[in-house]
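Homework help board

Subject: predicted structure for assignment chain

Our instructor gave us this sequence and asked us to write out the predicted structure in token form, then describe one feature. I got the tokens but I'm not sure how to describe them. Can anyone check?
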Amino acid sequence: MSKVKPYKNNETTKKEQVTQMFDTISKEYDSLNRIISFGIDVKWRKKVVKIVKELNPKAILDIATGTGDLAINLAETNAKKIIGLDLSDGMLEVGRKKIDKKELGSTIEMVLGDSENLPFESNRFDAITVAFGIRNFENLEKGLSEILRVLKPNGIFVILETSVPKKTPFKQGYKIYSKYILPTIGKLFSKDQSAYSYLSESASLFPHGEVLNNILRQIGFIDVKDYPQTLGVATIYTASK
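My token output:
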């Protein structure tokens, strides 16, 4: 498992560095995310919502919720309770303002917490989601085990994460974009120049496709499936308990 961290010459843990990084870029994150993904990430999140909505969940946990984009979208499922959890209070604060603006405070709660030590009882959530956050886990297996613990039997776990295209010339184009263009955009527009280099590097090294499917199965998830998106630059994974 890759141990790539945002700040290479810093001896603090990956978890501490990821928290610092997202606190730093929290106010610019949404706008830069739209630029970097050309807005396609909005379409991917809608697909996640459609998958979750089919189960008519009452309680949803959105892990690594960031500024709450997916948690807000999940309100379309008519769930009674949606909890967005993140390590970065800076990101959560941006999310809280968005939730207040949309008057969703009675449904969505933003919680400061660690995905590898979830502050919830076992078998609590009908659905659990994580969008573009699973590669930031310090210990992937521990985080996934915690998710399995708090997911209800027959509940659904949905991951949306970047992946690497397999077909030529998309594979080569993706490598050029992620290695050179994405970090350059980050350096031009971000106050934290290391952040977007890390996001690019972590995306390219994180296990995807059948490799991640097998990790999910080893943890104990069942009915594991993956659905590549937009020529394979992202993948939606679904699993159950």
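Reply (TA_rk): Your tokens look well-formed. For the description, you could write something like this. Helices lie at 14-36, 40-53, 69-73, 89-101, 140-150, 170-189, 193-205, 210-219. That's the kind of observation they're looking for.
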